[in-house]
Amino acid sequence: MAQSNHQRRPEPKLLGELPKRLHHNAYVTDDQEKTRRFYEDVLGFPLTAMWIEEVSHGGKSSIMSHAFYGIGDGGALAFFEFADPEIKDATVPKKQSGYVHIALAISEAGQTEIRDRLAAANLRSAVIDHGYCRSLYVEDPNGLTLEFTVDPPHAAEIATYQRETAHKTMQRWKQGDRSPNNALRPHA
Predict the structure, then answer these.
(1) What whole-number distance in Å separates Cα of residue 32 and Cα of residue 81?
(2) Which of 65, 83, 143, 148 has the highest CB neighbour number within 10 Å of its CB?
(3) pLDDT tens string 83-115
(4) Where do the domains of the chain lie?
């Protein structure tokens, strides 16, 4: 017997306690110093830890470094570099599209400061107003796209509306309805 589309979706059993914060987002670099210059010298993120460890990769022992750059909530952006050239070549990520990125919330003043720091270092960035946030995008020396987002004053109202409609919108998408629902985004 086929289920009716009008039957109510069962409520998901959500995690009792959500994670507190992002501990770190890990990526691989082929040059820790080049990465440090970008994150610490250009962006102003503090290098908060630098571990050198012996690890096993594919059954082979290797030495690896693991650098952490702090963000405001106590989390970090982290980068691995392997000493073994064979392992380094196998682990350095291939360039991804800008849709594969990490987004960090920041104040308007912080976004302006990052934009100015990038300009002073002759690095390109782009700003996109999504309506629900305004984002500054930049690519780091490893090909990782970073997004620095500023929420609008009514972000809490937007979040409430999205929580209330997200499942319905997902169902609409799954059924082939591709009509946009972002009336907040300015149109060119």
Answers:
(1) 7
(2) 148
(3) 999 999 989 888 888 889 999 999 999 999 999
(4) 23-93, 99-175
